[in-house]
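REQUEST FORM: STRUCTURE PREDICTION
Request ID: SP-0412
Submitted by: Lab K.M.
Chain count: 1
Length (residues): 159
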Amino acid sequence: MAADKKKKQSAKPATMKTVKRRGKKVVLLSGGNPQIKMGDGDAPVKAYIAALTGWQRELAKRLDAVIVRAVPGVHKAVKWNSPMYGLEGNGWFLGVHVYARYLKVAFFRGASLKPIPPDPSKDKNTRYVNLHEGELDEAQMTSWVKQAAALPGWVTNKS
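STATUS: Completed
RESULT:
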């Protein structure tokens, strides 16, 4: 009985699974969001995208390319298990989180963008765009990304 109890305590929740990506084990959390170590720069964001599966990976690659083209010199990081995009000294203007059916793109000053991104947040300044499989209006996303990068970004004291 003690062995059964110990086995239950060490089991991962049903919403987590482990997959191998490029020879490394990656834990996929609920919705397929990969658990990637926090870090600054392009490498952690590339690792995050590489750990995604199927259409989520392809859509995240396209989104990352749109952001890089729209904002030369964009600063990237993985924080709070999400890719973040910002400008050095200006804070974060955009974050991405993966769910089972969509990628959620958060514009931290989205209420100031034209047109305003469609999905509201509890924070009056933040707006979201939920990208489903095959959906990415590159022209609109480029416009929003350029506008967002020109605004003061979200700054936090936490890493």
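NOTES: The CA atoms of residues 19 and 25 lie 6 Å apart.
Reviewed by: T.R.
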